[in-house]
# Entry
Amino acid sequence: MPSYQIRDAQPSDVPAVSEVYRRSSLSNAGDRDQLLDSPGSLVFDPASVNDGCTRVAIADGRIVGFATTSTVTEAAELDDLFVDPDWMRRGVATQLVLDA
# Structure
């Protein structure tokens, strides 16, 4: 399994994270039309990045996936997990889940 650098997302990462969010969301053919009919659902809310709750996976110098967690009592809960379609099935999501 390839290795990815995983780090906290920074405010400067929001455009790249937003693009992964949009591309990943639209990659599911069963949801695509509904999402395109509601463009607001394709807009990434940067609050989780600004709050320090989002981690990004970096490969070849670019963000290829991200995960957002929240703390529930003593445990972390995975809220979001998105991988760029070009990087799916390469272990990115696995690495992000292990990191969470």
